[in-house]
Amino acid sequence: MRSAWKNNLIALASVAGIVAVWKVLSLITGSSIILPSPELTGRVLAEFLRSPDFWMAVGATAVRGLLGFAVAVILGISIGIAAGLSGVLYRLFQPILTVVRSVPVMSVILLALIWFSGDAVPVFVSLLITFPVITGNVIDGIRSSDTELIEMARVYGVKRGRLVWELLLPSILPFVVAGSSTAMGLTWKVVVAAEVLSQPKLAIGSGLFESKTQLETAGVFAWTLAAVGLSFLFEGLIRVVEKRVVAWRREQAP
Q: pTM here?
């Protein structure tokens, strides 16, 4: 308990330090267009929080991000398990994953703008950017599993479904959670960036672009804080799942 209080105090001190530096820099610049003060940003954010449109925009961004993330998790686990168990599929997918990881995010967004409508662009970008992260982690988890145990199960004719469900999934679960945590952090960055360019009707990215166009820098900061809050919320949920997975693994350990 004392350690938790200490960690919380350190975190609060870090946030206070950032706000203090922000305040000093805003005083030095002396222009709310260049760098608005923390108080001005707080007032703008408070106004946003009272607006139903703001919450609908945040909700719409959350739905797009979670949809792309969910599809990436499903595909990543499925393809990761298949590639981890098959040498042929591993050699087939490894170059594809490497290429997808190497493609600049902006190139993906621009291509998505050509191929899809505004609302679908952030979903596609989120899916494509996070998919290789999760797939790679699953493959690593499979390849680090007890290969002798897997071979023994195959020799004794254990069905593939049972092999995956009872033997592989428990061993790769920590890898899935770790990959999901990294992917979730990436999701909100790429989704908001895609929204800035694709301009859906309701979106954090659209709010950012509108504030920038009107030179409302405090609005840009306020929308950015909304995106950061969204990221913290869902990454926190992933952390809770991660702790439960670790606890479950310890209980299952002999």
A: 0.82
